[in-house]
Design goal:
globular; single chain; alpha+beta; 23% helix
Length: 98
């Protein structure tokens, strides 16, 4: 799923990398982060840019991912990024972080 996400969405970004405006998905924990202006993504692993809109609802996030990856997520499958539970202490140890 990570490989398909990287190829089929709008780009792959690493934690602590500058990203453009948009909504990002963290497949490792199903967290999302929305940047209203260009900014630094949290150190949490691999972020996938799923939309250039920074105002998607969780239902819209689920729909976007389901449409592209043929999955069956619902709005409750996603949560806003939390530094406490979603951060990664050792970068390079997440899914496909090579």
């Amino acid at each position: 799923m990570m490989d398909a996400s990287e190829l089929l969405f709008l780009g792959r970004y690493n934690g602590n990398q500058q990203g453009p405006i948009g909504t990002y998905w963290l497949p490792r924990t199903n967290a999302y982060q929305q940047l209203a202006s260009d900014g630094l993504l949290p150190q949490a692993g691999t972020w996938i840019l799923i939309s250039t809109s920074a105002s998607l609802t969780t239902a819209q996030i689920a729909t976007a991912i389901n449409t592209v990856l043929s999955t069956s997520y619902v709005a409750g499958s996603f949560h806003s990024y939390s530094a406490g539970s979603d951060a990664i202490g050792f970068p390079g140890t997440g899914a496909d972080d090579a």
